[in-house]
Give the backbone structure.
Amino acid sequence: MKKLTILSATLLTLGMLNSAKSQDLAHKLSFGLNVGVGIPGGDFSKNDGSALPLANTTTPDTTKYNGFAKTGFHFDVYGTYMFSSHVGAMLSLGGTMNSFDAATLQTVANSNGGSGAVVTSSGNYFVGQYLVGPYVALPLGSNKLQLELKGLVGLVTANYPTIDYAQGLGTGTITVKSGSGFGYRFGAGLKYMVADMIGLHFDLGYTGSSITYSSSTQTQSFGSMSQSETDPVSKTMSLSLMQVTVGVSVDL
């Protein structure tokens, strides 16, 4: 994490040093929208019983969650301000919507000695990404085609879908309070100016974070009897996303 902070600070410093060299920029401000796919990684994508919500192995880790997340839709809305011709700052507000693999969770729940469990989930993941940091645009042969580099840091939030299960005459629900954590994104892409103010983009990005969930509640019912128990002990889930997007921007 220290190396990531040093890299971001170095890029931002370069922008400040070069700002005096280029005060007559044709376009200092740019606003854009990118859309594409978000491919999960880390514990976010893990789909076994080595951690919660199952933790049914011989050496379970009950301090972490596995996410059972599948590839989903990603978007980000962003703005950039150029200090010089090539270096500026970016503010990015993004989100990734990943579905929860309840079918695999059910399979894992019924292995390892269990049987007959039916598992469903309510809702999908929404991973919010609220990031800021340095942005670099380098011309490739001409001013129409540019290589874009970015190093952003900020807040990442993530819910955990509600899990419903039934086995025999019993039913249950696991609800996890939404979590958050420090996050970062590094990306590289291409920008092609199709008009004086309009650019088309292709971008590859990597977002990482460790999400902390402060509490969870499990409700169990058997016939007319019902019991609810809250676990106040925080749990974590390492989260990473590989984002592949295309988009459009307007330079002002």
Remarks:
- The chain has a mean pLDDT of 89.
- The chain has two helices and 13 strands.
- The chain has one domain: 2-19+35-251.
